Amino acid sequence: MKNIKKIKIKINGKYKLIPNNYKIYNLIKKMKIPINKVAIEINQEIIDKKKLNKIKIRQNDKIEIVHFIGGG
Predict the structure, then answer these.
(1) Between the CA of residue 32 and those of 27, 68, 69, what are the distances in Å?
(2) Of the candidates 14, 17, 27, 30, which has an alpha carbon nearest to the alpha carbon of residue 55?
(3) Count of beta carbons in the 10 Å neighbourhood of residue 9
């Protein structure tokens, strides 16, 4: 069994350890978040959802995932 290096990130204000070289797409999928109902920000920059599979998460990244809520 190989030892996978972990990195520390902050998601919606909470610290989490994830595998090194993880992409934002993998994180969203693992958390079972419906991509079409959220906005994603990494280090205060809104991410284009078309690029989720290309963006690697780095040590100490701050990720905010905001769910859209309808109202009237």
Answers:
(1) 9, 15, 17
(2) 27
(3) 20
pLDDT digits (tens, 9 = 90+) for 38-57: 999 999 999 999 999 999 99
Instruction: Please count the other Cβ atoms lying within 10 Å of the Cβ belonging to residue 52.
Output: 17
3-state secondary structure 34-72: CHHHEEEEECCEECCHHHCCCCECCCCCEEEEEECCCCC
Nearest to 58 by CA among 10, 4, 3: 10
User: Which pTM does this prediction carry?
Assistant: 0.85
Q: Which amino acid is at 17?
A: L
Above 90 in pLDDT, residue 30?
A: yes
What mean pLDDT is predicted for residues 4-10?
A: 93
Tell me the fold of 21-67: Ubiquitin-like (UB roll) (3.10.20)
